[in-house]
Amino acid sequence: MPTPAYTIVCTKKALVAPGVYELRFTRPEGMTFKAGQFVLFDVPLVEDRTNIQARAYSIASAPGETELLFGVKLKEGGRASMWIEQVIQEGTPVRIQGPFGLFLVKETDPACIFIATGAGVAPFRSQLIDLLEEKKDTRPMHVLFGVRHPQDFFWLQDFMSLARAYPNFVFHPVLSGDDESWTGLRGHVQQHLPSINAAHPDAGIYICGAPEMVKDVKETCLTDFGIPKIRLHAEGYI
């Protein structure tokens, strides 16, 4: 069967961190997806709207939410970045195809550890709301969310609200840059994995971020921490 295509309409466009846009769209009637999946946007060149290429973005909204939510990291000079900055506004229609992807949380994992940097946190927002709020999943869950500077964090309220409401979920924001006011965890996200992994030695580990970050975290898990490959699940974005 061909993958479904839909026209969605932008309902909100907001800069939520330096170089990161939150985009909300109408959700077409009958559109279903699983937490962790992505869609392909038809992205035209700003200077030639007939020249269209597809770009993949993880769905950040949970399957039970009524809108489609995306977090998009801008890339200087990038086709999609220029389109988002210069063309997309509230009321703009966009064609998408999907859902696609198998970056799904396994029901057999006794615990889940999610590791993200930047916009890589998008599928984890979807998965956590789906697991905690909609499925009432009581497995231990941890999120390590890394950025360079405090202002680079976004959707913190969503994750902190979930952590307050569900005692089986712990949120760990991590800062890699220098900031004297920061009192939380520092360094690279994978540095803080061993202590969490020690408490949950059979947890499924889910990694999402830029490809080089995903590669580094996977190699560190395999070579430095001795975590079996079967426990690692990764999704890289470009």
What does this molecule look like?
- 22% of the residues lie in helices and 37% in strands.
- By secondary structure, the chain is an alpha/beta fold.
- It folds into two domains: 5-100, Elongation Factor Tu (Ef-tu), domain 3, CATH 2.40.30; 112-236, Rossmann fold.
- A six-stranded antiparallel β-sheet has the order 4-3-6-1-2-5, covered by helices on one side. It has a six-stranded parallel β-sheet with strand order 10-9-8-7-11-12, with helices on both faces.
- Strand 11 (204-209), helix 5 and strand 12 form a beta-alpha-beta unit.
- The longest helix is centred in the C-terminal third of the chain and has 14 residues, at 211-224.
- It is globular and about 50 Å long.
Topology (SSEs and partners):
Blueprint: E1 5-17, E2 20-26, E3 38-45, E4 48-58, E5 67-73, H1 79-86, E6 93-100, E7 112-117, H2 122-134, E8 141-147, H3 156-165, E9 169-175, E10 185-186, H4 193-199, E11 204-209, H5 211-224, E12 232-236
Parallel strand pairs: 7-8, 7-11, 8-9, 9-10, 11-12
Antiparallel strand pairs: 1-2, 1-6, 2-5, 3-4, 3-6
Sheet-strand content, in percent, reads 35-45%
Count of β-strands: 12
Strand order in the sheet with the most strands: 4-3-6-1-2-5
Q: What helical percentage do the residues reach?
A: 10-25%
CATH superfamily of the largest domain: Nucleotide-binding domain of ferredoxin-NADP reductase (FNR) module
- Derived from helix and strand composition plus strand pairing, the structural class reads alpha/beta
